[in-house]
Amino acid sequence: MSRKLVHILSGLLFLASWPIFSTSTGARYFASLVPSLNCLRLVMHGLSLVPDDGLIKSVTRRGNPEELLRGPLFYVLVLIICAIVFWRESPIGMISLAMMCGGDGLADIIGRRFGALKIPYNQQKSWAGSISMFLFGFLVSISMLYYFSAFGYIEFEGVWTVKRVALISLVATLVESLPITETVDDNISVPLASMMAAFLLFGY
Ligand SMILES: *[C@@H]1O[C@H](CO)[C@@H](O)[C@H](O)[C@H]1NC(C)=O
EC number(s) per UniProt (predicted)? Predict the structure, then answer.
């Protein structure tokens, strides 16, 4: 359970902290300091340069250090890329993080608890998980966009925005449901699909 809370909360708190940074051009890099240090930590422990059982337990599924270099490393890289590339000027990064942390994170928790009924083309994923992914990806994205629009960084254009976010959430959910997890980590496929869909639909 704590591994999933890390998955959900570390990214969402990072995203929610963006408004506290200044308007200077260096702010996005300064904000990326924390995930960058985490990135370094994952690489060091992933290569077993320094042992850290607590870290390994808190983010990996099977408990071997090399796992840190896959899902968890991609996760922090996505945090850094979203901050540096999109920052507060575009809804793309906000939505991508909401889908990866909120959507995928909650889908994992709910899927494990209520996911007896699997989806037809992937025995690893369940209806409960996919429906939660869609719902929470959508709700967390909408909340984040609303939050950033309240600070005046982006514009929340009512139904226009809601419809687009619903479509992006559907794309992210479909990609997450595909039986490709062995080849592409969900921590890459979900944010990447969300970024592309958001770029096509929002255009900035
Ligand atoms: C994604 O990253 C989180 C946070 O580091 C980690 O707990 C999770 O296992 C990763 N997911 C996958 C599918 O590797």
Answer: 2.7.1.182
